[in-house]
Structure formats: structure tokens, C-alpha cells
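Review box. Two proteins, two foldings.
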Amino acid sequence: MAGSRYVIVSLPAFQFVLCRWYVRLPIWFRFLWQASGISLNLQPSHPDRCGGLGFLSTADVQSLADLGGSYDMARAMRPTPVSMDDLVSFTAVTLLPLLPLMLAALPLEQIMKRPMGVLF
């Protein structure tokens, strides 16, 4: 059973991911090779003090945008990941299959006396 699942599901999934990397790496290497051949017109006297490449290091603006996005995400989060309705439904679904076993474990008179004793 486990061997057939490995052959039918896991091995093809692994081969698919591996083939994607085999395709992705040459594309990335080709891009880096072509980007390394760009002739840059760097000017040492540029006002940004980076030879004209100062726009690449706009970390201040990007960090503020990231901070705003993370604040919105944190505000939308619930304080607890599970609500009371989820907990009740999970408990009911978990205990429902055990109900027939309880009927077989205890005599019917004892099962009926307990709820009747609580109600009356």
C-alpha cells in the first residue's frame, strides 16, 4: 500500500518539482549572464552619492509600505484561532461515533437513570 502510494503520488510530485527547478535554473543563469553585460553609465558626482543607482536602495519607503500591510493583517486577525462554535462542532463530531459504544458498555437502565436524575 505504501509502496504503491509512493510510486503513484509521491514520486511524480517530486519529479515535477525537480523538473521545474531544472527549467528555472537555466533561465535564471541566462538572466544573470545578460544582466552582467549591461554597460552602466555611473557618474561619481551624482547627487544620490551612489553613482545614479540610489533609487535601488529605497528601503525607507518600502519598509513603511510593509509596515502598513502588516498592521492591516494584524488588525484583521482574531485573538484566538478557534471560535466557540468551531470547538462545539469539533467536540460533537468527535463524540458522535462513540455514542453507540457507550450504549454497548453500560446497561440501558443505568444510562436512562443518569439523565433522569439530573433532570428531575
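Next protein.
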Amino acid sequence: MREHSPVFEAMLSGAFIHQVAESLITVGHTAEALAARLSQEERAQALRASFAKVFGTEIDVRTIHAQPGTGPAEAGTVPTAAQQPKQSYRRPSRGGAEDTSDDVIPEPEEPSPEPRPDEEISDAERDEMVAQAHDDSPSSQVRDPEEVALELLQSELGARVLDES
């Protein structure tokens, strides 16, 4: 095979003898695209010539897509693309296959109500909101990052402070 083409030799690396019947050798290949390329006339002739050189007689060769260990095809049948099973997938959301999953899709949450205009807020509510904003000021919540990290290490991982003396 090397005399023919290094690419041809590489294509045959996944090939195997699928079936031998009288004067026909069926070569299987695990990759469908490469099986199709090996079936092209030029490559089929090169395979015939190689087998004739080894066995000393003319032998017909056909290439199919198959997996090693699968049974040989029935005599005289040539698998076609129409005979091979096709993979298909339908999205349940597209109305194809039935949804067999037990997952329940939650209903979307109601949008939060629109903020009330300032004119509708009473003075008491406004004063309460202002007082709350002053109590939750960011300056009272700012902490030293090292202190927070140390606290997390102690609470989550059981770390302890080493004496620096």
C-alpha cells in the first residue's frame, strides 16, 4: 500500500477483513467517510491489485462501513445508505417527541410591580425609607478584607491563628 500512497495506507489503518466469500473480500472500516473513500474506483483497484499480489489470483473487493466483530453481511447484499439506520433527534420543545422527563419546568415569576410615583408615597413612608437608607449605609458595612478572610477560614476550614512571637 505504501507504493500507492501514504494517505491510502493511513486510510487503511482502521480497516479490517469483514468477510471472505469465494472470490469476494469485503473490507470493513469503522469510519463511514473513509469506507466511502475506499470504495472509490481508484482505491478499489489498488486494493484488488494488492490482494492479487498476495494471493496470486484476481479477487473482487468491496468496502463497507462496519464495526469489528459484527457479523458478515448476507451474501450478495450491498448495504446502501437507505438501509443503514439514521440517527435522529427531535427537540421536545419543537412538538416532535413526547417529553418523558419528570422535570417540571417552573412557571415564570410574576414581574415585580412598577415603582410607585413619588406623588403617591406619603411623607411618613418617605421618612421611613430615608431613615432605613441611613441605617444601611455602605460605610457601616465595610470591613477589612483580611479580617473577613480570616473569619471565613476559621469558620469554614477550622483554621487557627498562629502566634507571631
